[in-house]
Amino acid sequence: MKNKENMKEKNSHNNSNQERKNLVKITRIILLIGIILISCFIIYEIIKVEPGYYTYGLLNSEGYAEDYPTQVKISKNITLYATVGNYLKTDFSFSIHIFKGNNNTWINKDSGSNGTLIRKLPNITLQHGNEWISDAQNISFSNTGQNKSIIFELWKIENNKEIYFDILFIKLNITEI
Fold first, then answer.
1. pLDDT tens digits for 147-165?
2. Run of H or E including 114
3. 3-class secondary-structure state, position 11
4. Which of 22, 43, 68, 138: disulfide with 77, CB 3.0–4.6 Å?
């Protein structure tokens, strides 16, 4: 009888040891998988390429991006400057087209406008990290009206072709002298 009890104890002890060994193996496998996953995430964060960006703005006559005119007398010049910053991690070639618009002019962020082209600025190429400000753009209106607009379209130049890129505008009311 004692032999049978001893054998049961040994079997129970062996089963317990085997379970521990299996538990240790499973734990090691889980830890190894965790270490590999974390390493992959770290490597991804180190080597991933952040997308570049650009800045595009209008400045008032004092060179600030604020206090744009909204009420202007007929034939009076409105002075604006366009500004572009290149942070696209590559050279950026562009042109700016300046339009006038009225109540019937549509302005669409995705496709531009149907305003009347009054000026096209020369092509510019900016290297990454550089900014550009245009010369003063003096624009006036020869007739009165509500909801007039001055529109600056940014056109990217790629393979000697202009591709619409972005749009900025201000709305004005033009009044008598």
1. 999 999 999 999 999 999 9
2. none
3. helix
4. 138
Residue 4 has pLDDT above 70, yes or no: no
Pair 139, 98: CB distance under 8 Å: yes
Q: For residues 53 and 122, is the Cβ–Cβ distance under 8 A?
A: no
The CATH number for 53-175, chosen from 3.40.50.300, 2.60.120.260, 3.40.50.261, 2.60.40.10, is: 2.60.40.10
Burial of 109 (0-12, 13-18, 19+ CB in 10 A): exposed
Distance CA 59, CA 171 (A): 14
Map tokens 């952040």 to a residue: 50
Distance CA 115, CA 139 (A): 14
Q: Tell me the sheet residues that pair with 136.
A: none
Which tens digits make up the pLDDT trace of 5-29? 555 555 556 667 788 888 888 999 9
* Whether residue 139 has pLDDT greater than 70: yes
| Residue in 95, 165, 168 with CA at minimum distance from that of residue 134 | 95
CA atoms of 59 and 134, how far apart (whole Å): 10
Decide if 65 contacts 170 (C-beta within 8 A): no
DSSP reduced 3-state for 39: helix
